[in-house]
Amino acid sequence: MLRFWSGAVLRLVAVMLMASFAGAMLMRIAPGFSSDDQELNSGLSSQSIQAIRRAHLADANIPHFYAQYLGALMRGDLGTSRSLNQPVKELLRERLPITLMNLAFALAVGWLLGLALAIATQTWDIPALNFLANGLSGTFISTPAAALALVFLLLRWPPAFAAALLVFPKIYRYAQNLLQHSSEMPHVLTARAKGAGPWRVLAWHIAPIAFPQIVALVGVSISIGIGVLLPIEVVSDVAGIGQLAWQAAQARDLPLLVNLTMVVTFVTVCATLISDAAQRGFKRSAA
Amino acid sequence: MKRHYLLSAILILGTVSAFAQSGGELRFCLRSEPKTFNPLLVEDEASETIRYLTGGVLVRVNRLTLKAEPDLATSWKVSEGGKRIRFKLREGLKYSDGTPFSAEDVAYTMQQLMDPALHSSTGDAFRSAEGKLTTHVVSANEIEIDFPAPVANLVNLFDTVAILSAKSPQKEMAALGPFYVSERKAGSYLSLKRNPYYWKKDAAGKQLPYLDSIRLDIEQNPEIEAMRYKRGEVQLINTVSPAIFEKLSADNASVRDAGASTDTEQLWFNQVPGAPLPAYKKAWFTSTNFRRAISEAINRNDLARIVYRGHAVPAIGIISPSNKFWFNSDLKPHAYDTSDALRKLQQDGFKLQGETLKDKAGNAVEFSIATNAGNRARESMATMIQQDLKKIGIKVNVVTLDFNSLLERMTQSFNYEACLLGFQNVELDPNSQMAVWLSSADNHQWNPNQKSPATPWEAEIDKLMRAQAASGDEHKRKQYWDRVQQIAWEQEPFIYLINKDALVAIAPAVKNAEPSVFRPQTFWNVETLALAH
Amino acid sequence: MKFIRLIAITVLALTAFTILGAHYLAPAGYEQQFRETPQAAPSAHHPLGTDELGRDRWARLLYGMRISLTLAPLAALFTTVLAGLVGGIAGYFGGWTERCCKLLIDLFLSVPWLFLLITVRAVLPLNISPEASVTVTFALLGLLGWAASARVICAGAKDLMKSEFVWMARAAGFSGLKLVRLHLMPNLRGALLAQFWISIPVFIIAEANLGALGLGVAEPLPSLGSLLRELQDSVMVRPEPWRLLPLAVLIVVISSFQVLLNKQEIRT
Questions:
Q1: With contact defined as beta carbons under 8 Å apart, do B267 and B523 qualify?
Q2: What is the DSSP string of B471-489?
Q3: How big is the CA angle at C225 (ends A27 and B407), to the nearest 5 degrees?
């Protein structure tokens, strides 16, 4: 167990460092790194424009910037956002809880809906239910996040609920296919033939086969949730990290981007590590 | 040199309704978080809003009459051909935290502003030449400021200089304007409260501003802003898009078209000699006939009618007709005439072969127009121009790029062919466009930072711009600037497309609002805005 | 059930027919601007009305479907193959291979790929054709969209490697590619199919969003994603029911494919 967790922590730290460094390098290589919309300000003198460009290029040496960033991180200093002129620590402290709460809500509701529908369609093979479930999941997976978010704003419903509706089709589709496939196993057919009821078949014969992949899906659903929630936050003007991420990308705000990548990586990898641990625990108890 | 005795009270008398209610909280939105509260470093619109609402200025330009009016200064005198200005200040004024205001604060502010390390457009506007600025505090209420060289439009420039306190512990947060920032929730809103020490009173002697407070919500999405306006959650929208304007009108929400603004949308071709483009394309783009032909082949009326739903006018040149004094009224819009466009192209050896236009070397005329992604109006205009130019056999590829990438191509790599962008002309005076029209300047977009003018007409523009900057005679400056407009109209380095209207939304509950086409459109007279209860 | 299958087949046949016959069914073409009638309501000349620039919506829907319903499934297939490959290799070999693959998956899920996409656009020529631009976009989506599913595949593959029938297959001499192809992949079909079906509409919408970076389809070529993006306007500005047709088309087509394929799966 100790070996597993120490390996997990190492993996977490390694991924956080690599992902944030890779993000910084990608930002540096992408065009527009040293550009600032102030360059088009005809009120600025040539010297001022050159000064703005030099300020942007101050962090052009990414390995050097990253080393300095890590040093400051050890002291608890996350740097200052160039585009917002505020300490990144303050920004994250204000906005991260909002996003985490919305994410937790979106995933909880998404899983509830998705898994419930998948189990229902699997247990009761009613055409109308299948049609409804497929129709709902097909509708929401095809709807752009921005449009759905605006509809919810019109209706004064929480944007996190829109995120849940966009997460559930993916959960439903994976879970439904996994349960469907597991239900075709010979031993399941045998159990049915022997008169086992649908719930018994589901609990004792289908779920154990599908469980490892469903648990893996739990871990992955965090990144699905983040991927869905961030654009909703941007469109709905929720003061979460979605807005910050978009701001960082548009303004090429390196300190902000590196920190946000660290945060997102931490949440994502923690989720996958927990699901890995759950799988291990399940296998041990099954054995 | 003019001495203005037009008192603010007279203006207020003209605008305040007798039954104006006082109190209440005005709510409207900012499109982004303000980047700074230091008024000397303001560059973005959100920070400019805060500066306008909280900053005390020596002189305020009335957004309706465009005349400079006394504010913190009761009078001023410009001398030495525009090198010196002397202000007489109001007595007994205080900042929002009670710190007294005096000429020392003006001196402090100007020294801060003209610090070469500051790099702000507010300061750069005063920097007509190298050299130090000197301030002489004549008395507690009188100050003389000397510039190293004459500064064009000197008096009006002080409309943008909010006076900082040299002594207040609150530093830039101490306000002389009608409001001060009382609360801020990052990413969410700012709250401004009435400045208890604001100096202005209305004609009846009542302390201004009428409003108790202003709440500014950070709202990036214009659709959400419009929705909130309809619900009554906000009472002003400073900039409404044409589509939302129509929707709000259809829903009987209160919206107004204040008329053509000073903003322009324009297209230009890359004329940088070192640009990574094929030589034959550079030859096209540097040809006046080519540019004039493209201009004549674009249906500006359609752009205004369709993209802007009729809330725009075809642009004539650099200056919008709403900038009445500086606009060259002799200029007429370029006519939409595809036949004449083809004739001009034929003069340069272009030939229409079937449905394809080819140059004299047989190259099919094809180029890309780059614009910034996410701006639906520009994307639509580029698509319409694509169709217009197809009629004369030109193939246009519309390329939308994220803004920073576009900027990098425009200003550093010069890896683009044509660009479609808009410019917000905040300042009316042509001197504010020195950095555009001087051939050596950075914002001379089609071919910036020239060591010497590439063409005779650019050399002539250089001479004219320097002459208008050095002259203290407004009528002479007008003549020079008219000639610059004429040259730009003939040569079309920028193909001006439209001037969009200033579309605003003001709720009926807001009293004394008189929207202007000049920024800030809806709240330029914020101290006299009131809410009906 | 047979009736539903019949409907699904009819829908797909109709879709294929309209896509292939777009030139005849929508003679107006997708780029012609009828500037006297922008934002027109449906009429005999324009069955779905016109858009903001006066372009026939019906034509743009047909051509948009052609682009998106051809390229999105290909990109989805690409991403599914990648997910199967990485997840399958990780689960099959286990040990350090699995750890490295999981590290790669975590990295892929965490890195902000936005800047890679911006860089790709910078490298592409400015005058690239709209068709080429949208093909590159879908290829990129396929290349970057596999990571989430790979984890699920890996968990499934790992579990399968411990199952009795795989033990028996190995005892019988099966190994490597043959084992993967005959015993692992068929049993991972559930997760692979899920990845495939989810990816199609997700990629269609993502292609439209990538327009903000200069990728995606270029004017005047329409795509289903760019038509779906207009829904954003219709929510606030003009709630016209016919603007929902691209969404309805996408839902119906995806659902029809799912109905057909699910039924085939049970049969085999």
A1: no
A2: ---HHHHHHHHHHHHHHHH
A3: 35
Reduce the DSSP state of residue B286 to 3 states and report it: coil
- The distance in angstroms from the start CA to the end CA of chain A is 16
Using DSSP's 3-state secondary structure scheme, residue A247 falls into helix
* Amino acid letter for position B364: A
Per-residue pLDDT reduced to its tens digit, B31-59? 998 989 999 999 899 999 999 999 999 99
In the numeric block, which tokens belong to residue C74? 């290909």
CA distance C36 to chain A (A): 29
In b/e form, how buried is each residue of C159-183, taking b as 16+ CB within 10 angstroms?
Answer: bbbeeeebeebeeeebeeeebbeeb
A32 is written with which tokens? 């527009």
Question: Rounded CA gap, B123 and B110, in Å?
Answer: 8
Measured distance CA(B494)–CA(A250) in Å, rounded: 27
| pLDDT score, position B316 | 92
Q: If we measure between CA atoms, which residue out of A242, A263, A223, A237 comes closest to residue A89?
A: A263
How far A256 CA sits from the closest chain C CA (Å)? 12
Contact B164, B109 (CB under 8 A): yes
| Separation between Cα atoms, residue C21 and residue A56, nearest integer Å | 53
Q: Which two tokens stand for residue A5?
A: 């967790």
- What angle is formed at CA B338 by the lines to CA B336 and CA B341, rounded to 5 degrees? 100
Contact list in B for residue C212 (CB cut-off 8 A) is 373-374, 400, 402
The parts of chain B modelled with pLDDT lower than 50 are: 1-20
Contact between chains at A31 and C118 (C-beta distance less than 8 A): yes
Strands B189-194 and B179-185: antiparallel
Radius of gyration of chain A (CA): 24
List CB contacts (< 8 A) between C237 and chain B: 223, 243-244, 246-247
Complex ipTM more than 0.85, yes or no? yes
Give chain B's count of helices (H) and strands (E).
16, 22
Do C69 and C224 form a contact (C-beta atoms < 8 A)? Answer: yes
Which amino acid is residue B4, in one-letter code? H
| Angle, alpha carbons C34-C37-C39 (nearest 5°) | 110
| Angle between helical axes of C130-144 and C57-93 (0-180°, round to 10) | 30
- Cβ atoms within 10 Å of B533's Cβ, excluding its own: 8
CA distance B6 to B70: 8
Please give the pLDDT value at position C266: 38
Q: Using CB atoms, which chains have 3+ pairs under 8 A with A? A: B, C
**CA B452 – CA C203 distance, rounded (Å):** 51
Helix, coil or strand: residue A212: helix
Asked if the Cβ–Cβ distance from A30 to C122 is below 8 Å, we say yes
Q: Percent of chain C beyond pLDDT 90? A: 26
Q: What is the pLDDT of residues C117-147, one digit of tens each?
A: 888 888 888 888 888 888 998 999 999 989 8
Cross-chain Cβ contact C214/B243 below 8 Å = no
Tens of pLDDT, residues B55-101: 999 999 999 999 999 999 999 999 988 899 999 999 999 999 999 99
Residues A42, B436: C-beta atoms closer than 8 Å: yes
Residues 229-248 on C with a CB inside 8 Å of B are 232-233, 235-238
Distance from CA of A268 to the nearest CA of B (A): 25
